[in-house]
Each structure stands twice: as structure tokens, then as C-alpha cells.
Specification:
The protein is 32% helix and 23% strand. The chain is α+β, with helices and mostly antiparallel strands and 69 residues long. The strands form two sheets. A two-stranded parallel ribbon has the order 1-4. It is globular.
Length: 69
């Protein structure tokens, strides 16, 4: 199961981990998950969810264009 990062606080927590890979078209940030993260995201006996979030720069365009991207 893949879940989404939706709150600013979740994105900031990942950024604080300072694990980053940079390429010309993409910046990937990651964070190791703690036991409390895994317990909160999944039901007992279920494989912990992978969580992913997307942000798009205003350079791409207005809100409609960024949502389409």
C-alpha cells in the first residue's frame, strides 16, 4: 500500500532528515521510518505503508498546471 504525505509538517519532517538525491529535473528527499510511524500508518498484521509526497515549483505554472503535472 502507498499512502500520501499531505501536511506541511510531514514534508518538513522528511526535509529535516537531510537525506537527499539531486538531479537536473528532480530532488528526492527521504527519511527512515520509526516504529511509531509504522504503527500509526498500518493495521496490526499489515505490511507498513510506503508514504510519498509530491511538490511542484511555481516555475511550472499556476495551480492548474501544477496539479496537471
Amino acid at each position: 500500500m502507498i499512502a500520501r504525505l499531505k501536511r506541511r509538517s510531514e514534508f518538513l519532517r522528511v526535509a529535516r532528515a537531510q537525506i537527499k538525491w539531486v538531479t537536473p529535473g528532480l530532488i528526492l528527499q527521504a527519511r527512515k521510518r520509526t516504529a511509531s510511524d509504522k504503527e500509526a500508518d498500518s493495521a496490526p498484521g499489515e505490511t507498513p505503508a510506503i508514504r510519498i509526497g509530491f511538490t511542484v515549483s511555481r516555475k511550472v505554472g499556476g495551480a492548474v498546471e501544477r496539479n496537471r503535472a
